[in-house]
From TrEMBL:
Homotetramer. The lineage of its organism: Bacteria, Pseudomonadati, Bacteroidota, Cytophagia, Cytophagales. Transmembrane segments: none annotated. It comes from Aureibacter tunicatorum. This is ATP-dependent 6-phosphofructokinase. The active site is at D128 (proton acceptor). Its cofactor is Mg(2+). Pfam families: PFK. It catalyses: beta-D-fructose 6-phosphate + ATP = beta-D-fructose 1,6-bisphosphate + ADP + H(+).
Amino acid sequence: MKKVAVLTSGGDAPGMNACLRAVVRGALYHGLEVYGIKRGYDGMIRGDIYKMKSYSVSNILGQGGTILKSARSVEFRTKEGRAKAAEQLKSRGIEGLVVIGGDGTFTGAKLLYEEHGLPVVGAPGTIDNDLYGTDSTIGYDTAVNTALDAIDKIRDTANSHDRVFFIEVMGRDSGYIAVQTGIGGGAELVMVPETRTTIDNVISTLQQGWDREKSASIVITAEGDQEGSAQEIAAKVKAKCPDKDIKVTTLGHIQRGGSPSAYDRILASRLGLAALEGLVAGKECVMAGIIKNEVVYTSLEDAITKDKPLNQDLVRMINILSV
Ligand code: F6P
C-alpha cells in the first residue's frame, strides 16, 4: 500500500482533528502518501481531495471541529454515488481509506468496501458513544464536560428561584451523555431512551424531593427519550403540577464544539494511529477501538449493529444518590 486517504463525516466531534493528525503523521511515518478528503463522502464524490503533509496538521491537536469539514451525504447513500466516489479514489491510485465518524459514516464505509473492495478502517468519532467495540468514542468525554459545565450554571439559577429544570442533552438514540451528566451534575432524575420513564414516574420522583422541601430539581432528558423532547416532557409535567415553576433548557450543538479534553486528545491520537496501522497491516472493514486500555479491532458490521448497553450500575447509582 502506497497511498491512503482520510475523511471526517457525520456530526463533528471534539478530537476529530487530533485523530486526523495521528492518521496523517502515522501514514508519513510508514512512508505512505496521504490524501485528505474535504466534506466527507460528498467531497469524495466531487473529487475534493488533496495531498497532505506533516505541516497540514500542525497546531490542530487542541482545535474543536474538523479542518477537513464534515457532511451528511445524501448522494453517497445511492449505489451510483458510491461508484463515483470509489472511482475518484481509484483514479488517484488510493488503495486504502480511514474514516473518522459515527454509525452513518461506518455504514457508508462498509458499503464502499463491499461494493468496490476498498479496504477501510474506521476511527469512532461521535459525541454519542453509541458504537460497539470501544469503551469511549472520540468527543464523548468533551461533550459530557461541556454539558456538565452548563448544568452547574443552571443549578445555580434553579436554586435561586426554586425551579424545576428539564435539561435536554444530545445522544440521538443513546442515553450515555445523559447518564454521565446526570451523575456528574447531581440530577434528581435522568431519562434515557433505553428505559421507559413515564410522566407519573417523573412526578413521583420529584415529589419525594418536594416532600423534603427540596427547593430546586434538575431532570436530565436524553434527546431520544420515549416521552419526547424536554419541552414536551416539561409540558406534560406542568399539566399535572400547575403550581410548579418549570423551565426547559436544550443544550444542543454547544455539546459538539470546543477544544477536546485531555482524555479525548489522547484517545483520538491512539485511535487515529491504530486505524492507520490497522490499514497498513491489511485490516479491512473494521473499526479501531479501545477496550480496557487496549487497542482492539471490531468489524464495522458489529460496531454499527451490536448493542452497547448502558452500565446499569450507573443508572442504579443515580437513583440512590439523588434522594
Ligand atoms: O451524532 C451526533 C449528534 O450530535 C447527535 O447527538 C444528534 O442527534 C445529531 O448529531 C444532530 O445532528 P445535526 O447536527 O445534523 O442536526
